[in-house]
Design brief:
Mean pLDDT: 98
Radius of gyration: 17 Å
CATH class: Alpha Beta
CATH architecture: 5-stranded Propeller
Largest sheet: 3 strands, mixed
Number of helices: 5
Bound molecules: citrulline
Number of strands: 15
Low-confidence stretches: none
Strand content: 15-25%
Helix content: 10-25%
Order of helices and strands: EHEEEHEEEHEEEEEEHEHE
Distance between the termini: 8 Å
Structural class: alpha/beta
Shape: globular
Strand order of the largest sheet: 2-1-15
Number of domains: 1
């Protein structure tokens, strides 16, 4: 169960955030409103939310999930693989220090973005992506093991981050799409197959028995409801334009 979340208000520079999507430029005012709604939903679910000020130096800084991995025993500040995002870690560290005594750090030449890390109980799957490299994944596994946690590496090639195509919903239920459907290491889970046309909804997030899912993906919503969850839809289409999903917008712990 989670009790807290950290989010960062999108900055105006968000409109020039990194993207591989061909969905146009985000509307900043709409993004701000969507972010407010997102925070409201987290609060309604019962999380105590720390809302950080916008940071104009970093267009993608609203995607706080990527700069830290929060575990029950320690927080790990990552080392983003995207050069334009590397400085984001400096600003998040003092915030996390308010909540954690044990803070670890991924160092060069290792890179990790925590969108590539999926927690399943005390095990952490780490996707090797364009942002997370082998050295970073190995450092992360060594840190996890220091705290009696474990990690393993997942190869991938189709999506930006591991959790772009996967979402663990607890109780052995795993939302999955595309290349992840047939991966050996995930066959032990009850795979909820997200339709390829709704791939964006694979990035849905379990929070204390509620699943938040992006608005506009009815088949995925029905799939998650059929698995027994209460579902709340949130419109995050302005963030989708720059490859951001629901999980990326918060650190939950
Ligand atoms: C980026 O490319 O870094 C941002 N535009 C989107 C980050 C999305 N984060 C995530 O999937 N965890």
């Amino acid at each position: 169960m989670f009790s807290k979340a950290i989010v960062r208000i999108p900055c105006k520079a968000l409109i020039s955030g990194l993207t591989g999507a061909d969905l146009g430029v985000p509307d900043y005012d709409k993004a701000l409103q969507q972010h407010k709604n997102y925070v409201q939903v987290l609060q309604d679910i019962g999380l105590e939310v720390t809302v950080l000020e916008a940071d104009e130096a970093y267009p993608d800084s609203t995607f706080v999930e990527d700069v830290a991995l929060m575990t029950p025993h320690c927080a790990i500040i990552t080392n983003p693989g995207a050069p334009s995002r590397q400085g984001e870690t400096t600003a998040i560290k003092p915030v996390i220090a308010q909540f954690y005594d044990n803070i670890e750090q991924i160092e060069n030449p290792g890179t990790v973005e925590a969108g590539d890390v999926m927690m399943v109980g005390s095990h952490y799957y780490i996707g090797l992506s364009e942002r997370t490299n082998q050295a970073g994944a190995e450092q992360l596994i060594a840190i996890l093991e220091k705290y009696q946690l474990s990690g393993s590496i997942v190869t991938m090639r189709e999506v930006l981050h591991l959790k772009t195509g996967l979402g663990y919903l607890e109780d052995n239920n795993l939302l999955a799409c595309g290349e992840f459907l047939l991966k050996e290491e995930f066959q032990q889970y009850n795979i909820l197959e997200v339709d390829a046309a709704e791939a964006y909804a694979a990035n849905s997030v379990w929070i204390n028995d509620t699943v938040i899912t992006p608005l506009g993906f009815p088949k995925s919503k029905a799939l998650i409801e059929a698995a027994g969850y209460k579902v709340i839809e949130i419109d995050v289409c302005e963030f989708q334009k720059i490859d951001g999903g629901l999980s990326c917008l918060s650190l939950r712990f």
